Amino acid sequence: MAGIPKLIVLSEQLRGKSFELTKDLHTVGRSEERDICIKDPTISTYHCEFIRNGNAYMLRDNNSTNGTRVNNVPVSEQLLQNSDILQIGGVEILFDCDDKSVTTVMRTKTGIDLESTEVGVSTVRRMDNFSPISSRKLTMTQLLLIGVVILLVIAILGLLSWIGILLMGQQDQSNQPTMKSIRKTTLVKPVAEQSFRNRA
C-alpha cells in the first residue's frame, strides 16, 4: 500500500474526523475500549472491525443492532475498495485507500438515454391537468347523482317548511276564540239584557 488507508467521517456530527488504519485489526464501536470510538447512539458498543487482508482491508460486522452497509448494501463481511461509502449504524464514513496500484472503474447505469435526447428541447403537452380545479366534463352518473342530491335537499326544506306552518297554525288556533265561545257570548248577552230590562 502506497498510502495509509483511513476512514473519514461524512456525517454531520463528526464530519471531517479521520482514523488511520495502521494495525492488522481495528475494532469499531461506541465503547472507549474500541480502537475507533464513535459516540453515536446508532452504533453498537462493539459494532464492527477492520481486518487487514494483504494490501486491502476487510470490513466485518459484529452482529450489530443497526447493521453495517457498504455503498448502501447491507453486509456482514466485505473487502473494501478506495472511495467505498460505509454506513456504520447511522454514521456515514468514506474509506480512503490512497493506493495508486489499484484502480477501480465504476460505471453507473441509469434509465436515461442521453444519446437519443435532444439537448435544450423540451415539449410541454398540456398544462390543464395541473389545475387544482378539474375542468373535465361530468359523466351521466355524476350528473344524476348531483340531481338526486338537489332533489333531496329541496324535499327536506319543503318538509321542514310544512312542519313549521303546521306548528304556527296550532299556536294561532289556541290564541283565537272558537265559534262555540263566540255563540255563547252572543246568546248570553241578549238574555242578560232582557232580564235587566224586565227588572227595570
Provide an overview of this structure:
This protein is an alpha+beta fold. Helices cover 28% and strands 23% of the residues. It has 2 helices and 11 strands. It has helices at residues 140-175, 179-199, and strands spanning 6-9, 18-20, 25-29, 36-37, 48-53, 56-61, 68-70, 73-75, 77-79, 84-88, 91-96. A 6-stranded antiparallel beta sheet has the order 2-1-11-10-7-8, with no helix packed on it. The chain has a 5-stranded mixed beta sheet with strand order 4-3-5-6-9, with no helix packed on it. It is rod-shaped, with a radius of gyration of 46 Å. The protein starts with 5 loop residues before the first strand and ends with a helix. The model has no long low-confidence stretch (mean pLDDT 79).
Keywords, please?
200 residues, alpha+beta, 6-stranded antiparallel sheet, rod-shaped
What's the layout of helices and strands?
Blueprint: E1 6-9, E2 18-20, E3 25-29, E4 36-37, E5 48-53, E6 56-61, E7 68-70, E8 73-75, E9 77-79, E10 84-88, E11 91-96, H1 140-175, H2 179-199
| Sheet with the most strands, sense and barrel status | 6 strands, antiparallel
Helix content: 25-40%
Describe the global form. rod-shaped
Q: What is the helix tally? A: 2
Mean pLDDT: 79
Number of strands: 11
Write the H/E string, N to C: EEEEEEEEEEEHH
Strand order of the largest sheet: 2-1-11-10-7-8
The proportion of residues in beta strands is: 15-25%
What would you report as the Rg, rounded to the nearest angstrom? Answer: 46 Å
Q: Spans with pLDDT under 50 lasting ≥5 residues?
A: none
- The helix/strand class is alpha+beta
End-to-end distance: 149 Å
